């Protein structure tokens, strides 16, 4: 069938489908009209009977019938957009305006509701005793149910608090809009029910003056009828006192040194200021902005000096004694220039910054610790990088140490995690217009378990008493020598905002042409069935991939590979793991591909290249393969067959056998001239001889990646670490040790067949350079893998299995190879195998291994004499190293 015939067939099918849909719509409309005619015909018949009984009403027959048939439809109730009292009021108006008979009100109401509301009312009818049909429900029963389900139970105290505390005119609001807003807010306050007007005024004025969140919560929980002015004052005092006692019990009454700020005096004449308005002065009794003669606390008794006429909070005697006490504390004079720097977030040179890396909403930022504040501040650029989360209004005024108001935009809650302690919590942040003001307050520091001493690179007295091998509680302990470099690396990364954007990159000026064999033929497979549990995730994945440019939908294509959805490893903080959409190219495409024989670097080569460096930075590319664009012919041949149609593969996919070789070659060509950089697929490692060299190498790499249009995941990058996990090993300045994956080997049970034994031996062989004489130690196990030997797991095999696990669990570290140090080679031979170890000999006479190698002896080699076996071990070691 030609393409034209296929297109004509498709158009005919669509035309038939549209005709069927049109027919169904017409049938549905006719059914609705019949139902409406039945309802209104009953009303018309009733009206005719009344007119026949009353001859004087004969002239009303036709108007009544016409009026009943002309009742329009009414809008359905939507709880999301309208309150039930407002809807019921509008419906009553509709009933009166359209002269709906009382006996038909329930049916008219039901026919105008959504399917959800109708079903709820039907369930209500069946739950009656005895059960009823929905058409037999009275209007009173329907209204009672709707009121119970959808009429919000308002807290009168809270509503009146909102009414009196939000009386200011908003910017740009007209007087008519202000009056309408006040009327709307008053509707939920139930003012007509007030009996004692004076007590109500005192109570609400007191509640509106409270600025303690805990007190307001306690007051709002009490019913309006049970809360008078005296009860409100009593509850507020008890709640506030309880909070103070609890705080002192938990944190103690510790005092902190006070930094006293002075502004340098200026010479010259002083400017005259107009006398401020009397209404702007603060009342000396309570501190509010009103006259002292009008203060409601004229008869209040101070709990500090026991004098009537003012509150303890502004007691002059108490303030005077506090000033005398603070004057004896450590005082630091700050110039006006330093004060401006402090407001702008700058720190004097002699003051160490307490910077730590913190992850907010899965993005990593450098935050400064500030134990002098409880608030957490982020700058406007950081808020934008987080995707501009919705801001709530601020309820407090924030000011600097110089009493200057801080310009804030609002607050938001951000999921925050300390990448080292692993603790995470939802932390409130205040967005400010001051650049580079990114602070974590003491509450967040305590919640996340961050140690301020460790952030400064200090060690407590207790930590000195511990062994040197103790595990650090924060990166500053293990990364103390790298703390400054880590801050510099984070600041350097901030200079490349495009590089760390949350979008898919594309390598500039390059298209990959995947090579196929000369006799390659088109292969097309139909789309595989998709489980219903994955349909939504797959559809979302397709839409995201098409938007990013990974795929392009087409109507016809000669090639088509079925899809294999794969769940990625679940990360902390996610409800379910992400779905990766791959093509199953093993069913036909891989057999037609030319092998791309670009050599993969060995882990030893890459780690040796950066061995002994000062700190390690690990850069992670985001969706690495998908950042490589394919040539048009390759896009067509690697297309996917999905349940939504054919998708052209515009970017390098996962699953084709030549993809690793192509990508490794691209990355090596991209970074081959950069010093201190090692690349294995999408894992890029950077180091340097010292801090400056490290920073310089990192800047060159980030510049190169940014210029080429690539994108990285900031949250997965690790900057200036003392040690990093790389290719299954732990790399540090001291040497190479086994990575965290060795734990999986140690937890493996004893093998039950040859297949599981080979799996265990393969995992052990991966860490073979850490195990001296591995071949001799594992010889009983290797013997079982031979086809000529029957499977028999005995004591000898179990002992070898346990011995290998014990050796793997050791903390042996292999040093980095240094051509300037003395080398040594130690060899050994047994009846079943030979081994060798390459080591460095240091000036103090100590020896540390660089690598271990071993092999089992063949049947002929086992007949050698012992001295010949030793010689064979030497030859083996020399050839291997």
TrEMBL record:
Coiled coil: 1-36
SMART domains per the UniProt record, alphabetical: ZnF_C2HC (SM00343)
Disordered: region residues: 260-280
InterPro entries: DNA/RNA_pol_sf (IPR043502), Retrovirus_Pol_polyprotein (IPR050951), Rev_trsase/Diguanyl_cyclase (IPR043128), RT_dom (IPR000477), RT_RNaseH_2 (IPR041577), Znf_CCHC (IPR001878)
Keywords carried by this UniProt record: Coiled coil, Multifunctional enzyme
GO terms for MF: catalytic activity; nucleic acid binding; zinc ion binding
Domain CCHC-type: 282-297, 301-317
A Pfam family assignment: RT_RNaseH_2
PANTHER family: PROTEIN CBG26694, PROTEIN NYNRIN-LIKE
Protein name in the entry: CCHC-type domain-containing protein
């Amino acid at each position: 069938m030609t393409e034209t015939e296929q297109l004509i067939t498709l158009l005919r099918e669509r035309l038939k489908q549209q005709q069927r849909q049109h027919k169904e719509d017409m049938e549905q409309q006719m059914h609705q009209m019949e139902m409406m005619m039945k309802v209104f015909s009953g009303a018309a018949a009733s009206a005719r009977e009344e007119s026949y009984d009353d001859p004087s009403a004969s002239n009303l027959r036709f108007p009544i019938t016409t009026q009943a048939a002309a009742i329009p439809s009414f809008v359905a109730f939507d709880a999301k957009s309208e309150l039930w009292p407002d809807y019921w009021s509008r419906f009553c108006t509709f009933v009166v305006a359209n002269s709906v008979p009382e006996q038909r009100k329930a049916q008219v109401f039901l026919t105008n509701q959504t399917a959800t509301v109708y079903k709820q009312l039907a369930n209500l009818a069946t739950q009656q005793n005895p059960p009823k049909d929905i058409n037999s429900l009275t209007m009173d029963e329907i209204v009672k149910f709707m009121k119970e389900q959808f009429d919000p139970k308002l807290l009168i105290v809270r509503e009146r608090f909102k009414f009196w505390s939000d009386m200011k005119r908003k910017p740009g609001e007209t007087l008519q809009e202000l009056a309408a807003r006040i009327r709307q807010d008053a509707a939920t306050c139930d003012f007509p029910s007030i009996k004692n007007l004076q007590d109500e005024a005192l109570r609400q004025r007191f509640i509106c003056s409270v600025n303690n969140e805990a007190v307001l919560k306690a007051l709002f929980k009490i019913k309006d009828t049970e809360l008078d002015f005296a009860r409100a004052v009593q509850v507020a005092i008890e709640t506030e006192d309880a909070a103070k006692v609890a705080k002192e019990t938990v944190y103690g009454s510790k005092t902190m040194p006070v930094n006293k700020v002075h502004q340098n005096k200026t010479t010259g004449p002083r400017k005259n200021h107009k006398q401020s308005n009397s209404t702007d002065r603060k009342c000396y009794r309570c501190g509010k902005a009103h006259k002292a003669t009008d203060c409601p606390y004229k008869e209040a008794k101070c709990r500090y000096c026991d004098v009537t006429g003012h509150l303890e909070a502004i007691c002059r005697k108490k303030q005077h004694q506090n000033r005398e006490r603070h004057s004896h504390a450590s005082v630091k004079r700050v110039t006006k220039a330093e004060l401006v720097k402090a407001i702008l977030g700058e720190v004097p040179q002699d003051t160490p910054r307490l910077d730590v890396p913190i992850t907010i909403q899965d993005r990593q930022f450098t935050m400064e610790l500030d134990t002098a504040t409880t608030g957490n501040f982020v700058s406007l650029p950081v808020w934008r990088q987080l995707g501009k989360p919705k801001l709530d209004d601020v309820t407090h005024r924030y000011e600097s140490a110089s009493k200057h108001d801080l310009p804030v935009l609002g607050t938001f809650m951000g999921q925050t995690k300390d990448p080292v302690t692993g603790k995470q919590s939802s932390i409130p942040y205040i967005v400010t217009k001051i650049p580079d003001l990114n602070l974590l307050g003491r509450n967040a520091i305590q919640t996340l378990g961050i140690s301020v001493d460790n952030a400064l690179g200090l060690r407590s007295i207790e930590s000195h008493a511990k062994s040197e091998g103790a595990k650090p509680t924060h990166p500053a302990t293990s990364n103390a020598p790298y703390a400054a470099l880590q801050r510099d690396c984070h600041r350097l990364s901030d200079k490349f905002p495009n590089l760390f954007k949350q979008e898919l990159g594309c390598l500039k000026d390059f298209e990959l042409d995947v090579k196929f064999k000369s006799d390659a033929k088109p292969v097309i497979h139909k789309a595989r069935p998709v489980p219903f549990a994955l349909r939504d995730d797959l559809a979302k994945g397709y839409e995201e991939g098409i938007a990013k440019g990974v795929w392009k939908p087409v109507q016809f294509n000669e090639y088509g590979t079925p899809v294999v959805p794969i769940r990625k490893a679940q990360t902390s903080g996610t409800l379910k793991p992400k779905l990766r959409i791959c093509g199953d190219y093993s069913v036909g495409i891989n057999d037609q591909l030319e092998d791309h024989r670009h050599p993969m670097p060995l882990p030893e080569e890459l780690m040796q290249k950066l061995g002994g460096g000062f700190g390690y930075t690990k850069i992670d590319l985001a969706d690495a393969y998908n950042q490589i664009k394919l040539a048009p012919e390759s896009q067509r041949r690697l297309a996917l067959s999905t349940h939504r149609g054919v998708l052209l593969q515009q970017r390098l996919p996962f699953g084709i056998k030549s993809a690793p070789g192509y990508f490794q070659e691209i990355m090596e060509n991209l970074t081959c001239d950069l010093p201190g950089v090692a690349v294995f697929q999408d894992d890029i490692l950077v180091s340097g001889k010292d801090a400056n060299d490290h920073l310089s190498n990192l800047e060159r790499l980030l510049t190169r990646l940014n210029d080429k249009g690539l994108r990285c995941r900031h949250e997965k990058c690790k900057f200036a670490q003392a040690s990093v996990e790389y290719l299954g090993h732990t790399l540090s300045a001291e040497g190479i040790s086994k990575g965290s994956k060795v734990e999986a080997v140690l937890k493996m049970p004893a093998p039950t067949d040859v297949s599981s034994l080979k799996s265990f031996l393969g995992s052990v062989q991966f860490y073979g350079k850490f195990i001296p004489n591995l071949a001799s130690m594992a010889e009983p196990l290797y013997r079982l893998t031979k086809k000529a030997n029957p499977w028999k797991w005995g004591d000898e095999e179990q002992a070898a299995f346990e011995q290998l696990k014990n050796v793997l669990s050791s903390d042996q570290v292999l040093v980095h190879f240094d051509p300037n140090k003395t080398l040594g080679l130690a060899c050994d031979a047994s009846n079943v195998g030979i081994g060798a170890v390459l080591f460095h000999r240091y000036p103090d006479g100590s020896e540390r291994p660089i690598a271990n190698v071993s092999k089992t002896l063949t049947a002929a080699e086992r007949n050698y004499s012992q001295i010949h076996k030793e010689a064979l071990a030497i030859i083996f070691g020399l050839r291997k190293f």
